[in-house]
């Protein structure tokens, strides 16, 4: 049937042989067949790859994270030396040195605080920790170093005006008292409050003198009590004898 059809198309003869097509043609359509499947890698190969894996070198630390090299013969900053000398002179001429924590406050309040403290001969000193810490480490105030951990100010006075200082700081919550050194004695905040309740030096000296003179006065009065009582009894006896006329006045000799 295929040959007849081809003959009819070709017009007879042998032309159909040249145009002959196979009766059955296989045409593959769609996707290709999958011939390779995933297979787990052998554990020895995994070990080999893990051992021979490339590890890039760690990046070097930036220079700002490295410690600064110790430079010998570095000249000290002149401004820092002047500030350190000023702190030394302030500590040397002050009997009361109070360390306070300073929080930010308006400039008008700072001026008012200085004014009220200056009325009691108390001066406000703004200092830098990097300047004051080396000075304190070489002085008798070295035990105050733990207080300088933030922004601090110093309240200094040539007199012990702890009571007036606490009265002024009570109205300034931005300034907190941490500790003080009064007459070469380091005190905490509670110690400063207890010191402020003590009487003045003149009153304490008067009380001490009164207490010391009380015992000698009592001893003297006890020693004079016997002779005084005997003298009084003799005078009374002589007066009675003169009243009754039983005795005459003894001769002057």
TrEMBL record:
GO terms for cellular component: mitochondrial inner membrane; mitochondrial large ribosomal subunit. Keywords: Mitochondrion, Ribonucleoprotein, Ribosomal protein, Transit peptide. InterPro entries: Ribosomal_uL10, Ribosomal_uL10-like_sf, Ribosomal_uL10_bac_type. It comes from the Eukaryota. Pfam families: Ribosomal_L10. It is found in: Mitochondrion. Belongs to the universal ribosomal protein uL10 family. This is Large ribosomal subunit protein uL10m. It comes from Cnemophilus loriae. The lineage of its organism: Eukaryota, Metazoa, Chordata, Craniata, Vertebrata.
